[in-house]
Amino acid sequence: MCLALSWEHAARTERSAEALQDALEPHMSKKTIDKHWGEYHQNFIEGLNKQLEKDDKLYGYTLDELVKVTYNSGNPFPEFNNAAEVWNHDFFWESMQPGGGDMPKLGLLQQIEKDFGSFTNFREKFVEAALTLFGSGWVWLVLKREEKKLEIVKTSNAICPIVWNHIPLINLDLWEHAYYLDYRNDRAKYVDVFMNHLVSWEAAAARLTRAEAFVNLGEPKIPIA
């Protein structure tokens, strides 16, 4: 990953975040988007760029590759936190949509029911994971390649499941800056609103469809749009 690519990435992220600035209201306010993306997310991008300016040992990596190589088998390089937080935040913005929530459909719903017993069970486990995560971090629905099944994963701070070769489908930001302006200290309300009104099952379904190029899930087959 080079500095020029990082700035190109920043411009793409800016367009994505600007499209969301008031589109998620009243569930996520423009004030929160401005603060979360405009300050915290941008700080990670700028911090990464400054680190990449110092030498060229990481030149040529994509962002995915940069996250994995800087994780360094659990012994992170200094660049890891910024790179992973840029990746995590990009994925978070793209895990939401106006009018989101409700339930997934078709193949994704079938896969959730197969791996969790029911959508209700999945939802309860996802919410429980979010509420029991200690400190700051993320909750993810991932496809585990070796197990060939969906699982819920909690990660602390900047850790991203791609470092373990999992395929993320959705994530939820549980750093306090993601919700304190809208929900103060009420993490439970924030998580409930995310599940009811914000999460994009359309994005998750598209990601699962792409994942089938790498993981043979057997039945049920995920329909191709």
Tag the structure with descriptive keywords.
225 residues, mainly alpha, 3 strands, disordered N terminus
Helix content: 40-55%
Computed over alpha carbons, the radius of gyration is 17 Å
Distance between the termini: 32 Å
What fraction of residues sit in β-strands?
5-15%
| Major beta-sheet overview | 3 strands, antiparallel
Query: What's the SSE pattern?
Result: HHHHHHEEEHHH
What is the count of DSSP helices, taking H or I runs of 4+ residues?
9
Q: What is the number of strand segments?
A: 3
Low-pLDDT segments: 1-7
Estimate the mean pLDDT confidence.
89
- Structural class, by secondary structure, is mainly alpha
Q: How does the overall form come out from the CA principal axes?
A: globular
Strand order across the largest sheet: 2-1-3
Explain how this protein is built.
The structure is a single chain. With 225 residues, the chain is mainly alpha-helical. It is 52% helix and 10% strand. It is built from 9 helices and 3 strands, in the order ααααααβββααα. The chain has a 3-stranded antiparallel β-sheet, with helices on both faces. Helix 1 (3-20) packs antiparallel against helix 2 (30-54) and helix 6 runs antiparallel to helix 8. Belongs to the iron/manganese superoxide dismutase family. Residues 107-206 form the Manganese/iron superoxide dismutase C-terminal domain.
